[in-house]
Specification:
six-stranded mixed sheet; 19 helices; alpha/beta
Length: 566
């Protein structure tokens, strides 16, 4: 068997409109079909053409869980890419450039794209060069090209195949370096190439979502777009509303009528939805809300990543009422926690949230196909037989949950009110009833607490250093902990995939047993650390926060540790 590189990081960079995404997605699909693990980090500017965009692929023949900053192979579609990323190259890294660029040096691999293809197909020629550098099977790559273009545009697929063939012939005459070839994987297992938003949408589908309303907002838009593709086959309605206010209220209305419903937005769009959150709480209507985080305030950095909306979502909506907030740290968790969120919204008869972010939304991974056997769909509403007569939608119960009959589905009259109301749903200003209803709604928190997903603990017991994190920073924290352990340090990591409600019994002993505790978060203020202190009294006084629009990486954590967390 050929021996090659086991792990490497390659980055494709260029302007929007140069076909960068086409190269990247076909290459990524080829890598996954060839048996490799991947972690993708996409960086793009908020513009249709121009600017500087990148698609970084960390690839390995073993499982990897975090992005990498240092670049082993740079594919530069313009000269700006070389200038920007040259300082990030590894010592023996190589750079693929167009032969017409005025660049020279041993690390440059100069390709005459204008001889290999016309301007429209130059990106496919670049794809062929990358595949040869990595030692990928040409047949697998050509099949990936066909799959990308062939179904809708067979003539384009044929031209692309020809470009790939011409590139292969030219490369046979060119002495490409062999140092970048990956170790081949025999009999690669089937895996999905899927990003966080796609997995989230599939999880919602598997749980039986029937209605999704949205107004387009990066990085959440690909969730409803994925749902749209499955709409007809799955009996799902996806509605692009005129704004976010309409979207959340449409979803509440659909849920009230019996359709498991969700919305997907980002911070600025969610700011318009918060009155709807209170409406769902008061009417005790299930709704699943996805908030794809990006840097604010206002428009901020609309295409970058951050974990800065935890406190906003936790306190969104006026009045006091229970809620649950999930924060997946892997693509697989995006699938499973979307399911759990829909189920919990129905069970608790109120709003349930899932926080993702631009990095997780756009990060492709290679994952085994999800096991769908035995997964059940959400059943909306309560059986009419469970509702004592006369039917009272807001009957006072020990659990705080009342039988939820669907309007028009039986002889019972269903009355709901956004004002404070009596048990039968009619408006009231009886202040004693007001107290009863607030207490009733708050009692649902006990069931939410009983269903909390515990944080994952990885590493040594009673470590000298415990890293605490949540959501998409999970992989980088775990990789950092492993590297520190390899250096002989006693290290552990505590990773939260549910950030509200918190159940201190699940993790407080771990915090108290560590010598030093440092929070690692994609925000400036250590929002989870502050929440933990509020709920437990345990003060995490050191925080590593990243808020420059880039994802937390192992290199970033190590740099901050070396200079001392604040």
């Amino acid at each position: 068997m050929r021996v090659g590189k086991e792990t490497m990081n390659l980055l494709i960079g260029g302007e929007a409109g140069q076909g960068l995404l086409t190269i990247a997605q076909i290459l990524t699909k080829t890598l996954v079909r060839s048996g490799y693990y991947i972690v993708v980090n996409q960086s793009y500017q908020s513009r249709i053409r121009g600017g500087h965009n990148t698609f970084a692929i960390r690839v390995s023949n073993r499982e990897i869980i975090a992005p990498q900053e240092k670049i082993d192979l740079l594919i530069a579609l313009d000269q700006d890419t070389v200038r920007i990323h040259l300082p990030e190259m590894t010592e023996d890294g190589r750079i693929v450039v167009d032969a017409k660029f005025d660049l020279s040096g041993e690390r440059f691999i100069k390709i005459p794209y204008n001889e290999l293809a016309d301007q429209l197909h130059a990106n496919i020629a670049a794809l062929g060069v990358i595949g040869s550098l990595l030692g990928l099977d040409a047949g697998v790559m050509i099949q990936a090209v066909d799959d990308y273009f062939g179904a809708k545009k067979p003539e384009v697929a044929q031209q692309n195949r020809q470009t790939m063939t011409d590139t292969e012939k030219w490369l046979a005459t060119y002495n490409l370096p062999s140092s970048l070839k990956l170790t081949p994987i025999p009999n690669p297992p089937p895996r999905l190439m899927i990003n966080g938003n796609e997995a989230l949408a599939l999880g919602a589908l598997s749980a039986g979502v029937k209605f999704c309303a949205f107004y387009p907002m990066t990085p959440a838009t690909s969730i409803p777009l994925t749902l749209i593709e499955a709409g007809k086959r799955m009996g799902l309605i996806v509605e692009q509303a005129e704004d976010e206010i309409a979207a959340v209220n449409m979803a509440i209305g659909a849920s009230y009528a019996g359709a498991p419903s969700m919305v997907a937005t980002s911070g600025g769009g969610f700011a318009l939805m918060v009155e709807g959150v209170s409406l769902a709480a008061m009417t005790e209507t299930p709704i699943f809300i996805v908030v794809g985080q990006r840097p604010g305030p206002a428009t901020g950095l609309p295409t970058r990543t951050e974990q800065s909306d935890l406190e906003f979502v936790l306190h969104s909506g006026h009045g006091e009422f229970p809620r649950a907030i999930f924060a997946p740290g892997t693509v697989e968790e995006c699938f499973h926690l979307a399911r759990r969120a829909l189920e919990l919204a129905e069970a608790s008869q109120g709003p349930v949230f899932l926080l993702t972010d631009q990095f997780m939304a756009d990060s492709y991974r290679a994952v085994p196909p999800f096991e769908l056997e035995g997964l059940s769909a959400v059943s909306a509403g309560s059986p009419a037989a469970e509702a004592p007569l006369p039917y009272r939608r807001y009957a006072l119960t020990a659990s705080g949950k009342s039988p939820r009959l669907l309007p028009g589905m039986g002889p019972h009259l269903v009355v709901a009110d956004s004002d404070e109301h009596t048990e039968d749903g009619h408006l009231t200003e009886d202040l004693a009833v007001r107290v009863q209803m607030v207490d009733k709604r708050l009692r649902k928190l006990q069931d939410l607490l009983a269903a909390v997903v515990p944080p994952e603990y990885h590493g040594d017991e009673n470590p000298e250093l415990l890293l605490v994190t949540w959501g998409s920073s999970r992989g980088s924290v775990l990789e950092t902990a492993e590297s520190l352990k390899a250096e002989g340090k006693r290290v552990a990591a505590l990773c939260f995939s549910q950030v509200w409600p918190l159940a201190p019994a699940q993790f407080l002993n771990s915090l108290q047993g560590a010598g030093q505790v440092i929070a690692v978060e994609g925000n400036a203020t250590g929002q989870l650390a502050r929440l933990i202190r509020r709920e437990t009294g345990f003060f995490i006084d050191q925080v590593i926060g990243r808020y420059d629009g880039l994802p937390v990486t192992p290199e970033f954590i190590r740099r901050e540790l070396s200079r001392g967390a604040r």
